[in-house]
Design brief:
Strand content: under 5%
Structural class: mainly alpha
Mean pLDDT: 75
Number of helices: 16
Radius of gyration: 21 Å
Helix content: 55-70%
Low-confidence stretches: 3-8, 145-154
Distance between the termini: 24 Å
Largest sheet: none
Amino acid sequence: MKQQQYLFKKSSIPIISFMLFVVYLFPKNIAYYTIPVLFAIIFIFDYKNIIRNIGIKTIFITPLFLSLLHSIVVTGTQDIIRYLPIILMILLCRYKGISFKYVTFITTVITVILISTQIAIALDMSVVTELRNYLYPIEKDVWAVGVSELNLEFNRSKRYGGIYYNPNVLGQMLVLSYLFILLSDLKLPIKFLLSSFILMSLLLTGSRTAIIIYFISTIIFYFYNSNIKRKYIVKTIVIVFSFTSLFIAGVMVESIMQGVTDPADSLYIKTYILIDYFDNISGVASILLGSAATNIHFDSDIGNIIANFGLLSFISIVAFIMYLYYKTEKQLRYVFTIFLFMFSNTLIYNLQSSIVLLTLLMVLSYKTRNNF
């Protein structure tokens, strides 16, 4: 057994890092194969870390298992794999099995690739565009916006999604990369340089949620990290950055208010779909255990989890996030801003982003000093 654990610690870091690289940059269907492999690797070689504090973990997982059984009875086995990432997130809570020295390098490389390809596609560089079309073939690019002018103005009529087509998906992936970078041991100037490029890329996506999460997490990071907030130069940067954030936040608030009140805006549509779902749902089992609206396209975690996993699972997931937040040191809590994506994107319900989120929480668990 000790030999197995030693082998796991030696081999799992590059394996998980490679999986992270593949999931970030390759089509979503890769996730269907990555999740079971990741699940098997951890359970076979290091199950002791999984069963640690299993009592409290069981409380969070039980509603998901009940929903899973109900889903199999009602809709068959087609959606079972969507339960695995969130179950793994709970089981790997406070995971101390391995460190993640390769993850920083991988996420830095991925960030450079995402930003450079976004700009290249926006400038209509045919080689990059054709490669994107080959790797990610789709029937119709509904996000095509033209490439005649590339500027850094916050103009949501021109939004650039890079290799993902969808600028909201790129924004979410960039914020995930950003949080990896903040968690890393990179020098502060390197973090600041990468942060600046990520901000530029986020502005090009026009993703309101991504930009807001970026600024909130940045402010929390700089003000709560005791190792750097004593430095005068950093304080100056934070003050300038905060005023800039407030200015951009004003623009964002106006855009969000338009999104809530404009029937043609995505925020309004997502809110209406969820309200309509609650108006038409019937049956206690469907409400509590889900599987009642698998054909409805909510385009947000809140709607997808409530409808497909059930209200009990949604409450359990929220309780788990809150518990994890409470057990995490203040200077690391900026990571939890990522869960704001649940209101507008599919973070947990999306197989691609859920694997990246799982890895992010594993890194957070390794870095935190508190016990579960």
